[in-house]
Amino acid sequence: MPTDPEHRLDELMETPDPGFETVMSCVFGIEPHETRTYLVLLERPGSTIGELETPLERDRSTINRSLTTLYERGIVRRDRRLLDGGGYVYQYTAIALPEVKRMLHDALDAWTATVHGVIDDFDEE
């Protein structure tokens, strides 16, 4: 279940020519390394935390925190796989890029509508 991010749209507005990664980080309220985790996961669906250590060059606890944030934002899926010897491991898959782009557009459209509402509702007294 996605949580509402704490947008950093002020940061986005101050960046003259933001790249996709900056837009994603600001709109979803995530850190740049979390955005990178999402992009790496796009190329490696069904990965475990251990399988992401090498491509991300990060320790397991940092990757776990990143994946938890991405999962809470609704941009990665988490599936539990049972292990042969007992126990389980989580596998993570990035939500498809077209869906994430739609989510970004929706968030920016909602913010824009709010700002337009503030402008329209302002009355000089």
From TrEMBL:
User: Tell me, what's a Pfam family for it?
Assistant: TrmB
Gene3D superfamilies per record: Winged helix-like DNA-binding domain superfamily/Winged helix DNA-binding domain
Residue span, Transcription regulator TrmB N-terminal domain:
25-87
Q: Which InterPro entries does this one have?
A: Tscrpt_reg_TrmB_N, WH-like_DNA-bd_sf, WH_DNA-bd_sf
Q: Where are the annotated coiled coils located?
A: none
Q: What is the lineage of its organism?
A: Archaea, Methanobacteriati, Methanobacteriota, Stenosarchaea group, Halobacteria
User: Which species?
Assistant: Natronococcus occultus SP4
Q: Which domain of life is it from?
A: Archaea
Name of this chain's protein: Putative transcriptional regulator
